[in-house]
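Lab notebook, bench 4. Still working through the backlog of constructs that have no structural model yet. Next entry is a single chain of 119 residues. Request: give me the structure tokens for it.
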Amino acid sequence: MKIHNTLGNGFQEVIYQRCLAIELERAGLCFAREFDQDIFYDGIHVGTRRADFIVENDIIVELKALVNLEDVHLAQAKNYLVAYDKPIGLLINFGSTSLQIKKVFKKKYKLNPENLKIQ
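Model written out:
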């Protein structure tokens, strides 16, 4: 909220990413920014995706700078939970006049100790 209150809306997403990295660091939280993840279909590598942040090895944070969030943005955040095998995510939109935050959950999350490590 501090970032949105300070900058308001209207900046590109990357500006908000940089500000959030500063705030996460100040808060002493462990995070990775723009962490690549391989995507597989039926055991075949089909590409990679990059989440904006993984916080405390458990939470995917996806940022947007749009006038309004749409269902496609929620779907993207949910897909990241599946791809990264994480239980919870936040979709944060800095582009609207009021900060928008959506919490998303992965159905049937299975804890895999290997997925807790950020390399």
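Notes after review: The first strand starts at residue 31 and ends at 41. The two ends are 29 Å apart (CA to CA). Flag for follow-up if needed.
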